[in-house]
Design goal:
2-enoyl-CoA Hydratase, Chain A, domain 1, 9 helices, 8 strands, flat, disordered C terminus
Length: 318
């Protein structure tokens, strides 16, 4: 090798020196990367546990408050009475709230939960008479979802929205004949002749069924009474099947007085409330949900830019 290239020792030493510099540069890049990652993580944790509403508006600016009622209305769900009522109180208590939009996309849920939200809306409307509340139907506003909407000053929907289902249901089933065929024997032991109510392995008891039907009828009447109180004379109460559990399109719902007009959240904020700046009020999520949903997009974009800057392929001088 020395005969072919008399400077091979010098070139080898030089190459080793440059390789050492490149290794140091790589180590420095990784050090910066992990420091930035830790910094972003700490910011994400602070962001996740903060209680800020999601908005592009400046703090203290007048806005339309948006609260979403999405999915099943039930205890422990995102649309629970505890969650929604807390957001309603927060929105109404803000001096910058010009109006509240309750955006609903729900098939319904527990009557007690829906009634609780209904009553809280009525209470807050009475207390804050200068702040209107409008319900906006997205795809579906049925059963308990409509129960909640009925408390609003006005209800808006799309022509193709599904609205209604003013009724109450309780699901049950029986497998007595199937159990007999399979040789399955129920050995449920109770104290109290009605304790095994709705046991699918026992034949239906007419007296128990009548009791349950009476209970559902009472809840149904409470539902109807609150809808009538909320909608007033706008509701076509003499319309056939109005309280039978039927559903209608938004277009038909308007004719029946179930909704007032057509429009989405942006329309109501801009044209009805008169404040196009919309601030979404959200409930607290657990750390993982918050990091992945609220901060994930921002952090991902920042990491992409940092990575591009840190790991560019600019060659070292040779």
């Amino acid at each position: 090798m020395s005969k072919d290239n008399p400077n091979w020792e010098r070139e080898t030493i030089t190459e080793l020196a440059w390789e050492g510099l490149r290794e140091k540069r790589r180590a420095r890049r990784w050090s910066i990367f992990f420091k930035l990652l830790m910094f972003l993580y700490l910011i994400a944790v602070l962001f996740a546990f903060s209680d800020w509403p999601k908005t592009d508006a400046l703090p203290g600016k007048s806005h339309t408050a948006l609260i979403k009622v999405k999915g099943i209305i039930a205890d422990g769900a995102d649309a629970s009475a505890e969650q929604i009522n807390a957001l309603l109180r927060k929105a109404f208590s803000s001096h910058n709230t010009k109006g509240v939009v309750l955006e609903i996309n729900s098939p319904g849920g527990a009557p007690v939960q829906a009634a609780s939200i209904y009553q809280e809306i009525r209470r807050l409307r009475k207390k804050h008479k200068d702040i209107p509340l409008y319900a906006v139907v997205s795809d579906l506003c049925a059963s308990g979802g409509y129960y909640v909407a009925a408390a609003a000053d006005k209800i808006y929907a799309a022509k193709a929205s599904i609205v209604g289902s003013i009724g109450v249901r309780m699901d049950s089933f029986g497998v007595t004949r199937l159990a007999d065929k399979l040789g399955i024997e129920s050995r449920t032991i109770t104290a109290g002749e009605n304790k095994a109510l709705l046991d699918p392995f026992r034949p239906e008891n007419p007296e128990q069924r009548a009791h349950l039907q009476n209970m559902l009828d009472q809840v149904h009447q409470l539902f109807i009474s609150d809808v009538k109180a909320g909608r007033g004379d706008r509701l076509k109460t003499d319309a056939p099947g109005l309280f039978s559990g039927l559903i209608w399109t938004g277009e038909e719902a308007k004719r029946l007085g179930l909704i007032d007009d057509f429009g989405d959240t942006d329309f109501v904020a801009r044209e009805v409330i008169g404040e196009k700046t919309v601030v979404e009020y959200e409930g607290k999520k657990d750390l993982l949900e918050q990091l992945t949903s609220d901060f994930g997009g921002v952090a991902g974009e920042m990491m992409k830019k940092f990575s591009a800057a840190l790991f560019d392929k600019t060659p070292l001088p040779r």
